[in-house]
Structures are given as C-alpha cells and as structure tokens.
Write a structure and sequence with these properties.
The structure is a single chain. Helix content is about 35%, strand content about 25%. By secondary structure, it is of the alpha+beta class. The protein is globular and about 60 Å long. The strands form 2 sheets. Strands 1, 3, 6, 7, 8, 9, 10, 11, 12, 13, 14, 15 and 16 form a 13-stranded mixed sheet that branches.
Length: about 400
C-alpha cells in the first residue's frame, strides 16, 4: 500500500466525542460501542404492528428523534432530523412521518414529505432528493398500518400518488416504478486491507494521484461548501443536469456539517480546487452523497484521491460502512467506479402508486435523454437559474 504523500488539511472536523451530540455517537465508536452499531433487540419491538396506533411525527419538532431512531435496524442519515430540516427549510415540503411507538422506543416508521407543486402536482414521497429511505418495519402488518395512514392523509391533501424509495418487499406483487443499484463498502480493517480490496486500476489511480502535487482538505466551513458547489456546477453542466441551488447546500452546511454529521472533502492542485465530495454520517454508516470534479484536471485522478482519503479517514474513526448511494442502471461507468473500491451491490427499487387508479406505475429514471443534451448548450446563468427554479418541482 503506497505511503500518502499528499498534504492533509482538517478544517475543524469533529472528533468522535463531538459527533456524539449529532448522531447518538458515544466514546470512540460512532455506533455507541466498540463492537459496531447498536441494534434493537427483537424482544423490544412488537410482534405485530397492527396493534399499535399510527401517529404523526416530525423530526424537527421532536428533540429526541435521532436518539430514538439510532437503535432501529435499517435507520440511515436520511431518516433523521438533519435531513428533514434541510428539505423543509430549503423547499418548504410538509413533513408527514408516520410512526408507531412502544413505551420503550420507536417501533416502525414511514418517512414522507408532501410536495405541493403547481408544475408537477401534489404527491407524497419517501423521501425527496433521497437515494433510499426505506420504511423501518419488522412486520408486514406494521407497514400496512403505516401505509394506510399515508393513504388517508393523501386523500385530505389531494395527492395524486405515493412514492416509497425502498422497501419493495412490503408491496407483494408490485413492480418497481424505477430501479437503481446501490453499493456499500465494509470499512472494517486496517488501511492495507482496505487498499488491497480495491481493483488494480483503482490502486494505480490512487498511486498516481498521491505522487502529484495535490492537497486533501476535510472541511465543514461554509466556504468549503461554496467551493464544492462551484465544482458541482461544472460537473452537472458536463452531464446536462441543472445543479441544485446554492441555498440547498447552505442549508446542508447549517443543519448537517455545522452539526457534526458530515464534511466536505476537497482536493486541490496548488490553490485550484479540482475534485470534491460531500459525506453525511449517522450511527456507524457514512454516506457519499455528492461528488464533483473539474474535467480539465481529470488526468490527475483527483476523484480517486478524494474517495481513498475519505475511506481511510472514516475507517480510522470507527465507522463500519460507507454507502456509495444509488447509480442509474444505465450508468455503467459510475457502477464500475464504485465497484472498483471493493463494494457490494444491492438493488434499490422505488414503488409508486397512483392514488386515483390504485395501480402501481412505472417511470423512467431520467438519467439521460434529449433534455440532458440540450442543457449542456445553455449559458451558465440560465443553466443555474433553471436549477434554482425547477428543483422543488422535480423532487
């Protein structure tokens, strides 16, 4: 395994003690113990969720939300309060988190946001701008009770459909509305072992990047977010997809990074930012949410240095899993990049039900088409303006 020659800069990135306040982390392990994530014991969860009342929760209003969520099997950052705050304050979505509780803890959860758009209609989504937010239910009966509550709320709000991102097993006989593939990396083990799991092409790219005049910076500052957003705009233009508005990332800084639940990783050539990524974390899992780079510096393999630096950084701090997020089934190149780090694939299926017809419907993933080709030709100000104006409606 090569010796890292690049300069590492940490911009007040929180220690494990500081992270304890933001994600239920205690001691040296982000999961609350040296043995990994805390898992709820089956005896503390109901055998049949149909006997528990369904109530409405709001992660923003409930100060104990994250602490109650942490022991739930399958819980992720996106089920938590920080992401809910970002979505509510950026886009004014209505939170409709349907829950069942025992006297001891949160037993089951269906997280929903209501979207009221004059352009694309009214609907409920679990959750907008989220790769996966599967229902947290042990039993089919529990999910059925939550979904019935969602359907009732949908009538009052005149939603045209309900979309659940994950949890296909709770919809017997349904076909996915759209499918993606996800990738997860086991972070347990020393750096040599983690590096050895990578494909040879990835190892060569990392070595090349480490031999260049590149610096790596872990940051949580608003300035680092703005620098990353500039890189993101370049990447999105290359792909013909309008960027999320800067206001969205400013809310991420306010509610996620400043709260100790994530960071920005930037790689620079001299003083020039050439690649970066945004990572979130909750419990023992880190999520790679956004990535971006300047194509002019592609030969430096800075993207590889971003990811390898993040892998070592989070592994050294006791996190057990790095979730690489979703990839379009059509984007073979992105899947290959993620697999190259030694990840394991898993399916991510969305289920959309038309509430007027009662039928499950299919949609495209919108990853490519004439619209993406047209977007690449727009002037920069128009390109960014489209992102600012339309993202709320496309959730």
């Amino acid at each position: 395994m090569p010796i890292l020659q690049s300069k590492m800069v940490h911009d007040q990135y929180p220690s494990s003690a500081a992270r304890a306040k933001a994600g239920g982390v205690t001691g040296e392990s982000p999961a609350g113990s040296a043995n990994g994530p805390a898992v709820a014991e089956a005896s503390l969860l109901p055998d049949d969720g149909s006997t528990l009342p369904v109530t409405r929760g709001d992660p923003v209003a409930d100060s104990g939300w994250d602490a109650a969520l942490l022991p739930c099997p399958g819980a992720t950052f996106f089920h938590g309060s920080a992401w809910s705050r970002v979505l509510q304050e950026t886009y004014q979505f209505e939170p409709l988190y349907l829950v069942q509780r025992t006297p001891a803890r949160l037993a089951s959860l269906l997280p929903l946001m209501g979207i009221n758009s004059w352009l694309t209609g009214r609907r409920g989504v679990a959750l907008p701008f989220t790769d996966e937010a599967a229902p947290l239910c042990r039993e089919q009966a529990a999910f059925d009770a939550l979904y019935s509550g969602a359907a009732a709320a949908a009538v009052d709000r005149r939603w045209k459909y309900l979309e659940v991102r994950g949890g296909l097993r709770f919809f017997p006989g349904a076909i996915p509305s759209v499918s993606f593939v996800g990738h997860r990396l086991d972070l347990q083990g020393p750096p040599d072992a983690l590096f050895g799991r990578c494909e040879s092409s990835v190892r060569r790219a990392v070595r090349k990047a480490e031999q260049g005049n590149l610096s790596v910076e872990f940051a949580t500052s608003l300035e680092s977010v703005r620098v990353f957003h500039q890189l993101l705009c370049k990447t999105r233009r290359r792909h013909g997809v309008p960027p999320q508005p800067l206001a969205f990332f400013e809310q991420i800084h306010r509610h996620v990074l400043a709260a100790g639940q994530g960071c920005v990783v930037l790689v620079r050539s001299g003083v020039t930012p050439v690649a970066g990524a945004v990572y979130f974390h909750f419990g023992s899992t880190v999520t790679y949410k956004f990535g971006a780079s300047d194509e002019q510096f592609q030969q430096l393999r800075a993207n590889n240095l971003v990811m390898w630096s993040a892998i070592k950084h989070f592994a050294a701090r006791g996190f057990s899993t790095l979730d690489f997020g979703r990839s379009s089934l059509a984007n073979v190149g992105l899947q290959k990049f993620k697999l190259g780090w030694g990840t394991v694939e898993h399916p991510i299926d969305y289920v959309r039900r038309n509430l007027r017809s009662g039928q499950f419907v299919t949609v495209g993933d919108g990853a490519a088409g004439w619209h993406t080709r047209a977007m690449t030709k727009l002037p920069d100000p128009v390109f960014k303006l489209i992102g600012s104006m339309l993202y709320k409606h496309m959730a």
